[in-house]
Design a protein that fits this description.
The protein is 9% helix and 59% strand. The chain is mainly β. The protein has a single domain, classed as Porin. A hairpin with a 2-residue loop joins strand 10 and strand 11. The termini are far apart.
Length: 232
């Protein structure tokens, strides 16, 4: 991978970062369809207070870095898992979800001006302890529900693994990263004993994860998660 001098030209357009991380898969269309069904069919809606639950989640994470000057980036796959608690609020369809888990973010990085054939792609992987605080709005329809959520996240850096030349560029690791989180999902209920959630979650860093030479570096991620929750 080529080096990036201090005087490298900056740009506020993140090359490779604004493209979608992954093509819209069929699972997203299914989640959106079921969510709309839940919201548009009030006759079948179950106006029951959501239970307080504790559970776990596991899933695949796809992420890529965003740089402030003209570098190309591509996605890297990682793992996400953790625990979460859902707490109902006095508002009928609103609950608060607090989560704590592990998130494995990463990226491929190269300089298109010096490596147009992508022969020297550098790799970086960042391991985080991630905490989330999300407001979740749901609409129940029989034994299923659709929901959307939004909130902040704080990632605490555990370890960085990267190619030697890229590590030389990422000169300043930030111990904590503030991000915005949003997503949607579908829940399936089994009596009052269990709830399974199938969820897509997007994360966009609002503060730098690293400082490179003349550049702030952040992450953009999408996760495909399964959650299992139990009342307590």
């Amino acid at each position: 991978m080529a080096s990036y001098p201090v005087g490298a030209k900056k740009s506020r357009r993140f090359r490779g970062g604004w493209a979608p991380i992954t093509p819209l898969p069929a699972v997203l269309l299914l989640l959106l369809l079921l969510l709309l069904l839940s919201l548009l069919l009030p006759g079948g809606s179950v106006r029951a207070q959501e239970q307080r639950t504790v559970g776990f989640h596991i899933g695949q994470l796809q992420s890529q870095q965003k740089w402030e000057y003209l570098l190309e980036t591509a996605t890297s796959n990682g793992l996400s898992f953790g625990v979460n608690v859902d707490v109902p609020t006095p508002a009928e369809f609103l609950s608060i979800r607090v989560g704590l888990g592990y998130a494995q973010r990463g990226s491929q990085v190269w300089d298109p001006s010096e490596d147009p054939e992508k022969e020297e792609i550098a790799q970086v992987r960042s391991h985080y302890l991630s905490s989330t605080f999300e407001g979740k709005l749901r609409a129940r329809f029989g034994p299923t529900a659709g929901y959307v959520f939004l909130g902040p996240a704080i990632d605490l850096l555990l370890e960085t693994q990267c190619s030697e030349d890229l590590c030389a560029v990422l000169v300043d690791e930030r111990p904590a990263v503030l991000s915005a989180v949003a997503g949607l999902g579908v829940s399936v209920y089994y009596q009052n004993r269990f709830r399974g959630d199938f969820e897509v979650r997007w994360t966009e860093s609002l503060s730098d994860a690293y400082r490179g030479l003349s550049s702030g570096v952040g992450y953009r991620s999408v996760e495909f998660l399964f959650r299992a929750s139990f009342p307590f």
